[in-house]
Design brief:
The chain is an all-beta fold. It has 2 domains: 10-42 and 366-465, Galactose-binding domain-like (Jelly Rolls, Sandwich), CATH 2.60.120.260; 44-353, 7 Propeller (Methylamine Dehydrogenase, Chain H). The chain is 2% helix and 53% strand. Strands 1, 2, 35, 36, 38, 39 and 41 form a 7-stranded antiparallel beta sheet that branches. A 5-stranded antiparallel beta sheet has the order 3-4-42-37-40, with no helix packed on it. Strands 22, 23, 24, 25 and 26 form a 5-stranded antiparallel beta sheet that branches. The chain is globular, with a radius of gyration of 24 Å.
Length: 466
């Protein structure tokens, strides 16, 4: 009998209601395949560069082909060989950072101050113009640098094409609602102004008095919870929002109407975080799947939405104590033909690849907790479970020579788990190997948890009770 292996992470507030979990695996759908769905292993990490003590706070790939990261309090430029060159230092050594560019300058905002790197001569300095206020975030649109003034509804613009030159009267107020402005962002050719409870969209009218004006009717009755979760993806804007009714929902807006993308279980995980305002996002595309990841801010794991399938999964790092914590990634850029991410703990940079099967040498725990199985509370005997791992993927040497997986069973709806049973996924070339677990016992309700840390390609296609 085929049973539902594939699904998203959906650990509900009540585990007996739903304990499903998909960790370091993501669902793949294909109507033309052997099965209509499967689980693939998420990408691993390979060492690429080292930028000092860190942590890596943001990464940026410029239009001129230059790559930059903010690591700790230092701005580094990274070349294709992974060499790091310091370009300057900023005042704040922790917290989220925003970066943007015009044609000749890179701008950095550390949550208080603004800095510019001039591409032509690599000169770097904090902007000292007294007309520039303390800034929360930064963006660039139509060659203007734009910042939001801390603890206000105001945003300021620089002189065109010059992030060092600001005028006292070059500001406006997002005034359709009296909430504080928390994030400025250039998306879809418009200036998005995210407040605590509302969002406005402005456009460049070319006026000589002040070039930006709010688009008529372009007010969204949803604000932003975490300012560094805004992403423009596939003609839409995504963010972690809040409004006058509550907080902790992921939204997407293709126009002026927000659409809810998170579900109850993901929102429960978000609202359980300890520092929600500092959650940040990373977006990347691999194998035709575009992923939007929320991480940091006290989340227990990184929460990832696959925009291709609309399903959520979790990414996590297996620490030295055997516990799962949020993924290492902090900052992402596509540079030199590579997906490059920083380390949230230190100054290391990694290449993220589907054919990397460890996190820079550390094991990756991949785990799927199935939906609960029950036959109307009637006791039932379960003889064997067959899990459709792609077999014969073992390596010729090293830790992946004889890859294995484990099964744990819960008979109390996900509250406690049995000791694990182990089976071989198959050595190199053992393509007909079957992953079977036998003598599963008799019970009213049963829940399966399959996991592996094998450093090999992981694909799971189907699952069957015998």
């Amino acid at each position: 009998m085929k049973i539902g292996l594939v699904g998203q992470s959906y650990q509900a507030r009540s585990l007996p209601f739903n304990a499903q979990r998909t960790l370091n695996l993501f669902p793949v759908l294909d109507q033309e395949g052997k099965e209509v769905s499967a689980l693939y292993g998420t990408p691993g990490l390979i060492d690429f560069a080292d930028t000092g003590v860190g942590p890596v706070r943001e990464a940026f790939y410029a239009a001129n082909g230059r790559a930059f990261v903010v690591s700790g309090s230092t701005l580094y430029e990274i070349d294709a060989a992974g060499n790091a060159t310091s370009r300057g230092t900023i005042n704040q050594s922790t917290g989220n950072v925003s970066m943007a560019e015009n044609a000749g300058q890179l701008g950095i905002c550390d949550g208080v101050n603004v800095y510019t790197l001039t591409y032509s001569d690599n000169s770097f300095a904090r902007v000292t113009d007294t007309d520039l206020p303390e800034a929360g975030t930064l963006t660039v649109i139509d060659e203007y640098f734009v910042v939001n003034k801390l603890n206000s509804g105001q945003f300021f613009i620089s002189n065109i094409a010059d992030g060092t030159d600001w005028a006292a009267l070059d500001f406006a107020t997002a005034e359709s609602s009296p909430d504080k402005l928390l994030r400025v962002y250039n998306a879809l050719g418009q200036l998005w102004l995210f407040g605590e409870r509302t969002t406005e969209i402005w456009t460049n009218t070319g006026s000589s008095l002040f070039p930006f004006e709010r688009i008529a009717g372009a007010k969204i009755e949803v604000g932003i919870l975490a300012p560094h979760t805004v992403e423009a993806v596939s003609g839409a804007v995504m963010w972690l929002g809040r409004d006058k009714f509550g907080y902790g929902i992921v939204y997407r807006a293709s126009g002026f109407s927000p659409e809810r993308l998170s579900n109850n279980a993901i929102e429960f995980a978000i609202q359980s975080a300890t520092d929600l305002e500092n959650i940040k996002s990373i977006t990347y595309q691999i194998d035709g799947h575009t992923f939007y990841m929320l991480t940091g801010g006290g989340l227990k794991t990184s929460l990832v939405l696959d925009l291709t399938t609309g399903q959520w999964h979790e990414r996590g790092f297996l620490n030295d104590n055997g516990r799962i914590e949020p993924h290492l990634s902090s900052g992402h850029m596509v540079a030199f033909g590579k997906h490059i991410v920083g380390d949230r703990r230190n100054g290391k940079l990694y290449e993220m690849r589907m054919d990397a099967y460890t996190d820079a040498g550390e094991e990756i725990l991949r785990e799927r907790t199935y939906t609960h199985l029950s036959n109307e509370s009637q006791r039932q005997r379960y003889n064997a479970l067959e899990v459709g791992f792609e077999a014969g993927v073992g390596t010729q040497s090293g830790a992946g020579m004889n890859p294995t997986c484990s099964l744990e069973i819960s008979r109390d709806l996900g509250r406690t788990w049995s000791n694990s049973m182990t089976a071989s996924i198959g050595k190199a070339g053992e393509y007909k190997n079957k992953v079977r677990f036998r003598r599963l016992g008799t019970c009213e309700d049963i829940t399966f948890k399959v996991s592996t840390t094998a450093p090999v390609k992981i694909a799971i296609i189907g699952s069957y009770l015998k």
